[in-house]
Structure formats: structure tokens, C-alpha cells
Amino acid sequence: MNLNLVLSFAIGGMLLLSLLSLSMTMSNHSVESTFNIINQGELDNLTFQISNDLNRMGYSPGGGNEPPRIIDARQDFVHFQADIAGTGVREVTWELVDTTLSHPNPDLKILRRVGTLGPGFPDTHTLNYPVIDFKLTPYSDFAGTVPATGLNEVRSVLVEVVFESKERVRFRGNAEGEFPRTYWRKLFVPKNLQLQSTY
Predict the structure, then answer these.
(1) Domain of residue 24, residue span
(2) Alpha carbon separation from 182 to 50, 122, 199 (Å, rounded)
(3) What secondary structure, in 3-state letters, does 24-82 show?
């Protein structure tokens, strides 16, 4: 057998394997980038709505025996008054609901928002966002360092959201794949809570 022929087949085979490996790597990166763009878009929608609501938290027209501006707040639940898109005083609720979803990611839960989105929307309009975790921490100072012990003391709220892809992404060397994860946190200092007097 001709040695040159054997060497050319060996070199050609190695070159073909290298091209296949490069193609798989590029395909995996392309899939990961696509899911990251989709996840970022969904996370942007969620964080926009959270920011829109919590920056308006605590709105009250003032006067005598007004109801509390923050009706209830727990680690994964908040119910408060706000002026949403100029509709006047409305109640808004954000709640983490542990429910089974029809997605491949078994850890997803529902972050549910109930409240108007503006003129033309009912007060019970519901939005559901798939998340892994949602956590609220109320503080009695502007810097978010002193935990609030009562709802009337709240001056700032730290919100943390853990967001994962609905679909599994398989990487080379990881046959099972994983769900790309994003973490978002923001300290809100609503103007309406700075003006709040103790009732």
C-alpha cells in the first residue's frame, strides 16, 4: 500500500473531524446566543413592568382615613396602591405562585401580577411570568440597609428575580444540557413612600 495515500487519508480524516467539531461548537454557541436573546427579552419585559409598578408604589390622594399604601408585603408577595398610567389609585399585586408549568424546565414557577395596566384594562388584569424565584425585602431607609418591621415604615424595597430559560441548552461535553440562568436585583425608592406619614 502506498504510504502517501495512507497519509493523505489520515490527514483528510483529521481535517474533516476538525471541521465537524468547529461546526458543532458554532452551532452550540448559536443556540446559546439565541436563547440568551430570548431570555433577555422576556426578562426585560418583566423588569420593565416591575420597575413601572414599584416606582409608583404607595400612591395616595391624601386626606383623612385613607387605607394603607402598602396593604401587605411578604418575601414573595406584595399588595399595594399605585397610580398606574394616570388611572388614579389602583391596587396591584405581585405574587410568586408555585405551580406546574408545561415547559421542559421543572423548576419554573409563575410570578403573577394582578392589576390594571392603564386605561382600558380591568383592575383584575393578570400577567404571568415564568421565573425560578422572586424575593422582596422592605427597608425603612433609603439605602436599603435597615429592614422594615412594619408596613408604614417602608421607604425602599429590594427586588430580586432569578430567571431561567424554558428550554434546555446542550453544550459540548454536557449531554444533559442546562437551563441558562439570569439574576436581576434592584433597590426601589418610591417617591410616594418618602412622603408617607405614619397613620
Answers:
(1) 3-194
(2) 16, 32, 39
(3) HHHHHHHHHHHHHHHHHHHHHHHHHHHHHHHCCECCCCCCCCCCCCEEEEECCEEEEEE
- Does residue 143 lie in a domain region? yes
Whose cell is 400612591? That residue is 59
Q: Give yes or no for a contact between 86 and 118, defined as CB atoms under 8 angstroms apart.
A: yes
Do 147 and 139 form a contact (C-beta atoms < 8 A)? Answer: yes
**Per-residue pLDDT of the chain in tens (199 residues, 90 and over written 9):** 677 878 888 888 888 888 888 877 777 677 677 777 777 888 899 999 999 999 988 887 665 456 568 899 999 999 998 888 777 788 999 999 987 677 788 888 999 999 988 888 888 899 999 999 999 999 999 999 999 999 888 999 999 999 888 878 766 566 677 888 889 999 999 988 886 554 4
- Number of structural domains found in the chain: 1
The H or E element that residue 124 is part of is none
| Structural domain includes residue 101 | yes
Amino acid, single-letter form, for residue 170? R
Give the three-state DSSP class for 123: coil
